[in-house]
Amino acid sequence: MGRKLKILIYYTHKESLGHTSRITTLANAFARAAGRRFQVYLLQAGIPQPHIAYDREIEKIDVPYPFYSKAQFKNLPVDIRNMDIRAEFIFEQTKAIMPDILMTEYFPFGRSECFLELSKAFLMLKNLKKKIFATIGYPYITLDVIKNTSRFFQYTRFYDKIFIHTPEGFEYPFFINLVPDEERRKLYESIFATLREKIIHTGYIFPEYEEGLTHARTENLAASWKRSGRPRLLVSRGGGTTCPKIIASSILAQKYLDGEYAMLLSCGPATGKKELALFKDLIRKNRIKNTTVVPYLPHFGKYLQASDISISLAGYNTSVQLLRLGKKCIVIPYTVLAKSGWINDQTPRSRLLEKYLDARLFDYDELKSAPLALAIRQLARAPAPKPLPPASFQGAANTVKAVLTLL
To answer: pLDDT band at 295, cuts 50/70/90?
Structure first.
């Protein structure tokens, strides 16, 4: 066997799970490609997430002084005081590895600060005629890009191809329809039209990875829920960085459901100890029955498959699984950006789930336990939705195949 192809994947996150799960699945797909043709390096630029397990052949490198965290969900500014140190670290790591391929996640469609720490490595690799690809979850561009399109196109000139991990034309109409005004809608359209020769739609990346740090108590509690003879409700809020009302309102909805349902609530690994204690106190003080709260579920997909109804945000990771499994679902999209005059990814995707899975949608700010309980009862009586075809979820494998053809 010849020399392995070296691929360096850069990603960051705000302690949520969507970006991490997508990249982990993609990195594993490269590492496990037929013949083990790739040596995979993960340049993890966010706060370390030790609960995520990677293929044993993947080398993970944590970039020091991460500047993104769950604080950004509260609109706190990004602290880039150590950007020069990070940029030099990334450059030296890139130089030492000398990858055949550099792949960046989400950037340049968002998080423009990342260019400050990537630019030196970009210039070196481009001069050496190495391949540079972007891995983008969905056809979404941030307001920062809309305001600075000339800068955005300066970034995209470094890229040979841009992989968007949705079926072609599937999510885009839901995004474009929610752009708030005609002028910016035309600009949004023109950006994708300009990049059409670089864009490759891969289909969804279905999360296929295992979280690392399993906990026996969590597993036992969740297993008890799975064995319940009652209809099973699974409540989740992704990484646990925001939206606590989803957990609290779901707990209190049990007061109106008369103990008929077994509810399992996954608060997310970023949930603090005090917040988790508050949720448990809510159960205890209100004498809520048949309700279990855990920090996170080490094998979330298995529990989602076992559920009768899912209650969640509309993040990529959970939504892809809902579409693949054809699950009854109640969706409460994260809408902070939508209410600041720009779209985010969750509001369009919630509309997609409404269309294809007959999802029941709730506004987060208006979420109350009694209407939520009523929606649960109504959904329990509704017919099960149809899943999307399996071919829609080959995004990781399709990306690996495409990369091989481009080398």
So the answer is: confident
| Residues 36 and 126 occupy one common structural domain | yes
| CA 43 – CA 29 distance, rounded (Å) | 16
Contacts of 45 (CB under 8 A, 6+ apart): 10, 11, 12, 63, 66, 68, 86, 90, 114, 117
| Domain shared by 317 and 385, yes or no | yes
Q: What are the helix (H) ranges across 195-244?
A: 216-227
User: What is residue 210's predicted lDDT score, i.e. its pLDDT?
Assistant: 58
d(CA 222, CA 281): 19
pLDDT at 158 over 70: yes
Residues 202, 238 within the same domain: no
What's the whole-number mean pLDDT along residues 229-249?
89
What's the chain's Rg over C-alpha atoms? 21
Mean pLDDT (whole number) for 353-360: 98
Pair (201, 150) in one structural domain: yes
Tokens of 103: 């792949």
Same domain, 171 and 279: no
Burial of 338 (0-12, 13-18, 19+ CB in 10 A): middle
Residue range(s) defining the domain that contains residue 15 = 5-208+392-406
CATH of the domain at 190: 3.40.50.2000
User: Is 80 strand, coil or helix?
Assistant: coil
Cis bond upstream, residue 108 (ω within 30): yes
Across the beta sheet with 38-44, the strand order is: 59-62, 38-44, 5-11, 101-105, 131-136, 161-164, 199-201
Domain count, the chain: 2
CB 105 within 8 A of CB 135: yes
pTM of the predicted model, to two decimals? 0.93
pLDDT in the model for residue 233: 97
pLDDT of residue 337: 57
